[in-house]
Amino acid sequence: MKRKIGNSDLEVNSIGLGCMGLSAFYGKPVEESEGISLTHEAIERGVDHFDTAEMYGPHTNETLLGKALNRRRDKVVLATKFGIVAPAHTGSKGALDGSAKNCRRAVEGSLKRLQTDHIDLYYLHRLDPDTPIEETVGAMAELVKEGKVRAIGLSEVSADTLRRAAKIHPIAAVQSEYSIFTRAIENTLFPALEDLNTSLVAYSPLGRGMLAGAYQGGKRPAADDWRSLSLPRFEGENFDANRMLAAEVIALAGQKGVSASQMALAWVLAQSDRVVTIPGTTKLANLEANLGAYDVNLTTEDLEHLAPLAEQVAGTRYSDFGMKLVDA
């Protein structure tokens, strides 16, 4: 189960917990006590990699994790991100700032909210087109020297950006969406990961719930859920087409006697020992089901059956604006 994160001294179980959905984007946030309880239950079940970001909330997700982990800090690898500046600082949603000044401001805030003296894995959340990656990574490297950060990561960057960044400081991980439905980085980013001994931290490995079977039987995301508001794959005919594709995964999982989420996670982990993943959930039952993926063995025939699905997915994974911020 354990996998090393790139060239760092960090080692985690290969299924972690993406914490964004506890506090933001997927409808009403959970009560803080519920989020803390789920975090504790996850640790009891062996989850040791927790991922958050400054802009989740904003700030409320880091605050929740700080309360949840303050007496369990030595049991986990804690990752957070900066670079998408919260509205409280800019007056506008989603402003990008990868400057050295903002890096310093952000890390101090994250350390305080997370109630810790160090962040294990610190990411640039999205590339700032107005700040050279060399400047951003240089500022992050200073945090490593100071002991405030153990390892550096980047999120949704291109292979070229990764290679430029790695000349300044080793990059332990790149975080990107990766699933049975989302595979474009295999031909672009994967070679650079291999060359640089950098891990992939795969987020949304369940296709934002689609691959877990959450939207079968006519179910749709709630009206206040980000998926129904901003993501093309969840719109109109795209949604219907993708739900039919997900049914193929569900059917294959049923034949093997496992859940669809277990099938989807097992697929991600089977692609490379360089991959770890951070599925998100707000429910203990889903968390337990996800961890059951460790016991799923996919055959060559299973992998061949699932391979063509990504090319058939309808719609981009983000809006036009969002797509400009990935593979950057």
CATH class (first level) name: Alpha Beta
Please state how the strands of the largest beta sheet are arranged side by side: 3-4-5-8-9-10-11-12
Low-confidence stretches: 88-93
CATH fourth-tier homologous superfamily? NADP-dependent oxidoreductase domain
What is the succession of H and E elements?
EEEHEHEEHEHEHEHEHHEHHHEHHHH
* Main sheet record: 8 strands, parallel
- Please report the total strand number as a whole number: 12
What is the strand content? 5-15%
- Measured on Cα atoms, how large is the radius of gyration? 19 Å
- What would the CATH topology be? TIM Barrel
Shape: globular
Count of the separate structural domains = 1
The assigned CATH architecture is Alpha-Beta Barrel
Mean pLDDT: 95
Count of alpha/pi helices: 15
Helix content: 40-55%
Question: SS-based structural class?
Answer: alpha/beta
**Distance, first to last CA:** 31 Å
